[in-house]
Amino acid sequence: MIEIMLICSLIFLTLSIIAIMYRLVKGPSASDRVQALDTLGINIISGVAVFSVLMRSTGFFEVILLIGILSFIGTIAFARYLERGVVIERKHPK
Amino acid sequence: MNANIPSEVLPILLILIGTIFSLLSAIGLVRLPDVYTRSHAASKSTTLGVLFILVGTFLFFLLEEHYFSIRLFLGIFFVFLTAPVAAHVLVRSAYRSNVALAEESVQDDLKDFIHTDSKKTKDAEVNDTD
Q1: What pLDDT is attached to residue A77?
Q2: Nearest Cβ partner of A43 from B22, B89, B99?
Q3: Is residue A93, in this structure, part of any structural domain at all?
Q4: A35, A90, B45, B61: which has the fewest Cβ within 10 Å?
Q5: Residue A34 domain boundaries
Q6: Is A32 part of the contact surface with chain B (CB cutoff 8 Å)?
Q7: Residue A21: its pLDDT value, please?
Q8: Where does the signal peptide begin and end (chain A) (predicted)?
Q9: Which of B7, B12, B22, B88 has the highest number of chain A CBs within 10 A, making it the mutation to test binding with A?
Q10: Within a domain: residue A38?
Q11: What are B77-82's contacts with CB under 8 Å, separation 24+?
Q12: Closest to B8 (Cβ–Cβ): which among A2, A36, A71?
């Protein structure tokens, strides 16, 4: 029973990832694509958490933490790039 | 039906609620018209869904195997802290790089401030390079 519910949850998460992939491919501007990437990372975190419950294993929790940190840093870097054209600013370039 | 059903029901219910929120936010991400309205679906309901799922996982391992995972707790804290910040920075950069609003939108209060502001800073940059 519990396995069936968890597998249903994984199927719905996969459907939402497919919808996000549609936005990632089609999105009119670059901001839409970065937003879709951020949401994709968060959905992958949910999928890993459900999978670790399904496997009854605690070994995937580092993956959750790592994907969260990398997705956040990637989103911040993309946003700075879209806003200013550079990721790391220097005050007086020589 | 074994005896420890009640300790499993609450985490699985939380995981299912979080899955429904994630699916609804993905539908919103497909159907809403522009990047600003889409950020509502992409930040608020997705954060709520992932928090439900992570709290469900946390409670599952706490109730079922009596395992308090500090890594998962840090993950919950980190996602709760960073997802709104990422959405805010992203929408701010989208507005400043002139992504158009949807045709249905009726009001744009930031237009007078931001775009004259960026013109000023551009003039300042030009003066700096001179």
Answers
A1: 92
A2: B22
A3: no
A4: A90
A5: 2-84
A6: yes
A7: 93
A8: none
A9: B22
A10: yes
A11: B78/A65, B78/A68, B78/A69, B78/A72, B79/A42, B79/A45, B79/A68, B79/B47, B79/B50, B79/B51, B79/B54, B80/B47, B80/B51, B82/A68, B82/A72
A12: A2
Looking at this predicted complex, what is its ipTM?
0.87
Chain B contact set for A82 (CB, 8 A): 93-94, 97
State percent of chain B over pLDDT 70: 84
Which chain A residue lies closest to B30 (C-alpha atoms)?
A23
Query: Is residue A54 less than 8 Å (CB to CB) from chain B?
Result: no
How far is the alpha carbon of B102 from chain A, nearest alpha carbon, in Å? Answer: 12
From B45, B19, B22, select the one nearest A53 (Cα to Cα).
Answer: B19
CB contact under 8 A, B57 and A2: no
For the stretch A62-71, pLDDT in tens is 999 999 999 9
- Does a structural domain hold residue A90? no
Asked if the C-beta of A67 comes within 8 angstroms of chain B's C-beta atoms, the answer is no
Q: Residue A94 falls within a domain, yes or no?
A: no
- Please report which confidence band the pLDDT of residue B89 belongs to, taking 50, 70 and 90 as the band edges: very high
* Averaged pLDDT, groups of 10, chain A, 94 residues long: 90 94 89 92 93 90 91 92 79 65
